[in-house]
Design goal:
Layout lengths: L4 H7 L5 H18 L4 H26 L17 E2 L6 E2 L3 H8 L3 H7 L11 H13 L10
Antiparallel strand pairs: 1-2
């Protein structure tokens, strides 16, 4: 039995807005450097490339129907870890994981899953530990005037 190449493409993580902008710049730059173009066409080229890339993302989302998180959102925040709604992985820090695996910023992640703006990107116990550590070193306090 052979694998369908379309299935592999649909399972790949979709790029976030910043990744789309980076790819758009790269593609438009390559096009302009290899083709004779006039300045007035540059905006249309960029819009066309971005629209095509963003459309690929939209088409993939439409194939999957409504978003379904890997775990219920209410159960995604545990004291010792936070669960990635994309794939269900348990992590202490979500921000770097989202960037490297899905090309998403915390803002894009929150928007995609309709999470509140204060939805944490770090496990609560880890945040408390870091806060206590910072306080031990005197961080966050105003310097005493002599």
């Amino acid at each position: 039995m052979t694998k369908s190449p379309d299935k592999d493409l649909n399972e790949a993580p979709q790029p976030g807005r910043s990744e789309l902008l980076r790819m758009t710049a790269e593609i438009a730059s390559a096009y302009v450097s290899n083709n004779n173009t006039v300045k007035s066409d540059l905006v249309d080229i960029i819009k066309s490339v971005y629209g095509s890339l963003a459309g690929l993302d939209t088409d993939a989302d439409m194939d999957h129907g409504p978003l379904k998180p890997a775990v219920p959102i209410k159960k995604s925040i545990q004291n010792d870890y936070i669960v990635c709604l994309e794939d269900g992985k348990q992590l202490k820090m979500l921000k770097r994981y989202l960037r490297s695996n899905y090309g998403m910023t915390p803002e894009e992640y929150r928007a995609k899953w309709k999470l509140p703006l204060d939805y944490p990107m770090v496990a609560p116990s880890y945040a408390k530990r870091r806060s206590a550590f910072a306080k031990e070193f005197g961080l966050g306090r105003k310097k005493k005037v002599a």
